[in-house]
User: Fold this.
Amino acid sequence: SSAASDVYKRQTVQDERKMFNCSQVSISDVLNCEIIVEDFIPDVKTSHGEGRYLVKFKHSNGADGKFFTNAASLKKTLDQIPKDAFPFSTTIKGMKCGNGKIYQFT
Assistant:
C-alpha cells in the first residue's frame, strides 16, 4: 500500500478515536451535575456551525458521554487548562444573560 493511504488510514482511525465513541447529550442535560471532563476536541465543524468544542466526560455514575459547545466561556477555560490537568471534576452552571445563557465550569 502507498504511504499516502497509510497516512490516511491512520488519520481516519485517529479522528474516529478522537471523536469519542460514547453517547452524545445536550449541554442542558449535564447542567448542575457533577461531571469529570476527560478530554476535548477544539474547532469541530457541526451542522450548527464551525468552531464547536466536543467535550468528553464521565457522569458521577461512571457512564461516558460527550457534548458539543460553542460557549465562549467554556472554550476559553478548556484552552487554559494544561493537558496534564485532565481529567478534572466540575459542575457546569448556566446563567441567564439577556436572550441567551452563559455557561461556566465551577
About this structure: Confidence is low (pLDDT under 50) at residues 8-14.
